[in-house]
Amino acid sequence: MDKLKLGGNQGSANKKKRNRRAKSSNFIENDHMKGPNFKVVDKTSESSTQASNMCSRVQNEQSKDNKLAPAEESTINPNLSESQYTLKHKKRKSKKKKSPIRTVTDKEEVSMLSADGDIQLSKKNGFGINLDSSGQASEEKIVVSGLEAIKTAVSNIDVTDSIQKTKVYDHQTLVKAENLLKSTELADSLTGTLKSSIMSTHEALKEESWAPCTGAGKQQRLDSRASNEEGQKTKAQLKAERKAAFEAKRVAEVADKRMSDKQTQQKSKATLRAERRAVQEAQRAAKEVSKNEKSAGVKKVHKKTSDDPRVSQQEVRKKVRLFRHLPQYHHNYLLTRNLRLAGSDLHPSIIGLGLQISQGVVRGSNARCVALLTALKEIIQDYITPPHKELSRDLEAKIRNYMNFLNQCRPVAVSMANAVKHLTRFITKMPSNINDSEAKLRLCEQIDTFIKEEIKLAKQAISQNAGENIRNHDVVLTYTCSSSVKGALCDAYDEGKNFRVVVVDARPRLDGREMLRCLVKKGIQCSYVLINAVPYIMQEVTKVMLGAHSLQANGYVMSRVGCSQIALIARAYNVPVLVCCETYKFSEHVHTDSIVYNELADPNELVTELPPNKQTLENWQDIPSLYLLNLEYDLTPPDLVAMVITDIGNLPCTSVPVVLRVKHAGSQEV
Amino acid sequence: MENVEMEKFIHTLKYGKLSGSCKIAQLALQVLENHVISSMWLTAYDLLTSLKVVGKSMIDAQPTENAVGNVVRRVLKIVRDEYASALGKHAEGDPQESLQKMFQAKGRDDNYRKELPALKEAIVDSLEELKRELETSKDNIAEKSLEHIHSDEVIMTIGQSMIVKTFLKYAACRKRLFQVIVVETPSLSGHLLAKNLAESGIETTVITDAAVFAIMSRVNKVIVGTHSIMANGGLKAISGAHTLALAAKRQSVPFIVCAPIFKLTPQYLCHYDQDAFNKFGSPQEVTGLGGGEVFGKAQIINPVFDYVPPELVTLFISNIGGNAPSYMYRLLSELYHPDDYEL
């Protein structure tokens, strides 16, 4: 028999209340996830049963063929990648307007129909059923957990069933039932846990002001999913309403009957108090359990090595206190250990790129961006749209997947993120009526244009603008290796200008040697110092030229760690600081310090490759109070920077939001 | 005998085999004490002249090592003071005289030429006091640490300074809980300090020189040692200290210098080129041993010291107490005689 979907309450009167309930429910929502580093924390992990029920519900709603998810998948895989979540929740969002729909197996349906409201919980699928369709997942799962508990232990099924059945959303009936429970000798027969679960159920239900919702009557159960769209039958709703009211009355009747049947209604005050105390103890115990689970869940998140099971990174055990919110890995650990060659959903060029980036073979934001775009081009050329799927949606999902993998290898640079954002915007705007080869051609063209215009031509433009600022007999100070500054200096030298360069370098990367090599090869007169000697050398410097990793919307310059220091010293000696940055690296971030958003490199880099007489900290891991910090980036405040040299001209730091706005407007026109 | 010792000391100074100003100062004092005891002198004037000769040869062995010169000047001042007190004159009232007295300077020629039998003993006693002061200066400064470090503080320091190490460990012993961030210098002396502190149980983080400004916003105090204190209150400190001071000023973090008072030198920074002020280390420390064809075509600069102007320093903590940088010039008159500034 076909699996059926139950419709929800579509009455307009209750729509507002439903929406309110939807907001207050514990669904994972799309806007909670921002940025590649955000770990999805399942809010419903507070209670495992609730979680399993919730997750299974979510899963079920996502399943395209209205099939039930198998039991193994009914708990959310904690290693589910962010992309998969967003995928699910994009679909989830589209259904949000409608009430949540549950699937019911034929078996359960039969049992529901048969036993006159007697609910059979299906253990097979690991989730419970709620007769009332208007319930939200939160109440449902609470009821369900309560139901399960009740079901397993109670002897007097009638009363509890009727309590369940009523789906007591009527506050008054609820109170009545609860009071009955408390006062009657039924309290005796129920165990403490049952009582607590019932109490908690009712309390939870009480939290939201339930209106007497129209539950799905038997008729509605039989309706298919399609017919549960908005604008539904009001007849059935009314009928369900009547049924709910009737059932509520029935509870009271049955309870009264029970009371009259057994004679021990007069409970002594002492025994009542004892019962209440027992209930409270049980509730407290339940809370403790849930709290422990919660904390265990939180600990688990910290101990996890990575979100993605394909990537195995070994997390560094000791993290500096200030930076505990950032991931930090050992980079000599073989990344792709857990990757399977066949059947892996990652394109080999992405795997290769990930390895290259994580090992530091490809370094520098421009280089990484170009490498990424080249890999994406290969992917697009190899791409074949799977049947029944749209290229725009599927390709976008795949790219998101790849970006997630790359993020695990090494946190994605702002330049890479911006390039991918640009590309995905183009993909989503593609018309669906063109065939695959045409679409792929367009995409590859777009990538080529991006590389050519935003990276290569921009570099030339920057060189030209910077060259105008370099005069004869200048002493230019530069820091580590920036491709834009290197290009600018080499081009200025080619024009015949006579100037000197001071290259500043810092541990542990010592990238400045690369810059020195290029300049010396050109024939430029160079000096080489380490960053501690900058105040000494700054007195003979006439201008400072720095590269940037990205420029933030509040004017702060994010660049290699040490740039802010150099800008500070330059300001103390009244030397102007020029920053060279392409416009595609401008970002919307607005951080104000170098701690909240940074990249932590491997701390072992500080103690490797040292001469034998300097290896004091070889065993730093064994000393408990000792930490090493190896930062990648830092923020330079805008007042220390005189000018930013970009491909569109020379700007002050504070013009970044203007440029971003113009760019957005431009892209929307396209 | 004492000649041999002096030659040995000069030899070790010249070849840079000694490290740590405290040790150097103590050795220099030993040499001078031996000279006072064993050499033949009749008047204070003779002693002063011979001490100046010995002192000059020690200073010339390593001109950048100010501790030697400072100790020599201290000894000379002691001799002058002892002479003055033996004569019955007041200690103060001598150097900074009025213009009138300077006109009637005839009597000055007799100064230091009188033979006083008790002088030698008095001088030796004072020298012993000075020796004790040099030995206890480190602990003296460390005892003041509780007045400057509060609970849950984040302290930043650079390189390896014995004074700062004792300072911090004293506070940690007295159960003050704080964190330390150590800036490793290019010579990685910060690693030694960090390991030492961490093994005593202080939570220590090692950062590179490049991360100073990035982290400074979360630091509560900067406590550093120094090589010498200039007469204007500036510092001659390890390379990298100026960056630390600038970053601290920017973030309004107090910059505290712990140094015993014998490090105060009556010299000034004459020129920003730092020709006489600074000295340069081997380029190999910067470049390592490879990459000759590239580094051979570039100029490698490796200064050892950094000048930190007095405006960037908040406080000096020395064995005679805490002082602002603007007051340091005043202490000069207590320690040295102006005639000894130029040796």
From TrEMBL, chain A:
Component of the translation initiation factor 2B (eIF2B) complex which is a heterodecamer of two sets of five different subunits: alpha, beta, gamma, delta and epsilon. Subunits alpha, beta and delta comprise a regulatory subcomplex and subunits epsilon and gamma comprise a catalytic subcomplex. Within the complex, the hexameric regulatory complex resides at the center, with the two heterodimeric catalytic subcomplexes bound on opposite sides. Residues 14-23, 87-100 have a biased composition (Basic residues). Residues 46-61, 74-86 have a biased composition (Polar residues). Belongs to the eIF-2B alpha/beta/delta subunits family. Residues 1-109, 205-235, 254-314 are annotated as: Disordered. PANTHER family: TRANSLATION INITIATION FACTOR EIF-2B (PTHR10233), TRANSLATION INITIATION FACTOR EIF-2B SUBUNIT DELTA (PTHR10233:SF14). This is Translation initiation factor eIF2B subunit delta. It is found in: Cytoplasm, Cytosol. Its main location: cytoplasm. Keywords: Cytoplasm, Initiation factor, Protein biosynthesis. Residues 29-45, 220-235, 272-296 have a biased composition (Basic and acidic residues). Signal peptide: none annotated. The keyword Zinc does not apply. It comes from Limulus polyphemus (Atlantic horseshoe crab).
Automatic annotation (TrEMBL), chain B:
Residues 120-147 form a coiled coil. InterPro entries: eIF2B_beta_subunit, IF-2B-related, IF_2B-like_C, NagB/RpiA_transferase-like. Its main location: cytoplasm. Keywords: Coiled coil, Cytoplasm, Initiation factor, Protein biosynthesis. SUPFAM superfamilies: NagB/RpiA/CoA transferase-like. It is found in: Cytoplasm, Cytosol. It comes from the Eukaryota. Belongs to the eIF-2B alpha/beta/delta subunits family. Component of the translation initiation factor 2B (eIF2B) complex which is a heterodecamer of two sets of five different subunits: alpha, beta, gamma, delta and epsilon. Subunits alpha, beta and delta comprise a regulatory subcomplex and subunits epsilon and gamma comprise a catalytic subcomplex. Within the complex, the hexameric regulatory complex resides at the center, with the two heterodimeric catalytic subcomplexes bound on opposite sides. This is Translation initiation factor eIF2B subunit beta. It comes from Limulus polyphemus.
